[in-house]
């Protein structure tokens, strides 16, 4: 006997498997692309000297100099703290987007693009509680080699500190809010990125759907790469501002900024508008595979399999 319409099984949202999927996706993704992210940070932080001199001429030059000065493991400087915090960061971002999409879906099952953008923006806003300290610590660790190399060329030495030492130092000198330096710039970047990324990914991913189980693994990877590329390039100016605001140790002649507006105005004045796209190609090369891998792993449904739920 069929059930009456009002007793039909209602769709349910299971948050825990989504969190598990997001955690695994983040760890796998960041482990693969971290060296590119390190290069991106160093390219964004370097400023042009009065005679047009640069510490790094290109991505390849930065790779070569970093490897020559710090070896293979130097390419993973700051990765420990990033992998530690990327677990909750990606779990929050991906799971929150799915959750908000579920609750914003209209009774007829449709989800207009404006609601998709709202879901993405809310997911981006949720993640900054973890993203801000993660990015702050990661940037200091990634940029330490660049500052040390510059100091060595000038006949000076700078003592390198670990992520744990840096965290203790910030907590001691600035309290818990010391870990949230640059939170406004981080929020602008992450919210705007998610508003662009998630609706675009959903649209592309749906194009590859073959049956009720959704698109194949490789299509989610391609959709994540394509959506990540577009979104990364769109918000690169804010990423440059965020990176510079969160860099605590500056090289010789490099400027400190008092606010987002000061950073934007000063950068425009001294370096021109192209400065806001520094590391843009490298950022695309980081974000595209990161989100491609993360989305593909996320949709495998490892969390559902562990908990015995249908993906």
Automatic annotation (TrEMBL):
Belongs to the mitochondrial carrier (TC 2.A.29) family. Keywords: Membrane, Mitochondrion, Mitochondrion inner membrane, Phosphoprotein, Repeat, Symport, Transmembrane, Transmembrane helix, Transport. Its main location: mitochondrion. GO terms for molecular function: L-aspartate transmembrane transporter activity; L-glutamate transmembrane transporter activity; symporter activity. Responsible for the transport of glutamate from the cytosol into the mitochondrial matrix with the concomitant import of a proton (symport system). It catalyses: L-glutamate(in) + H(+)(in) = L-glutamate(out) + H(+)(out). The keyword Membrane applies. It is a multi-pass membrane protein. PANTHER family: AT03939P-RELATED, MITOCHONDRIAL 2-OXODICARBOXYLATE CARRIER 1-RELATED. Signal peptide: none annotated. GO terms for biological process: malate-aspartate shuttle. The chain crosses the membrane at residues 20-39, 178-197, 217-235. It is found in: Mitochondrion inner membrane. Solcar repeats lie at residues 13-103, 111-207, 215-304. GO terms for cellular component: mitochondrial inner membrane. Coiled coil: none annotated. This is Mitochondrial glutamate carrier 2.
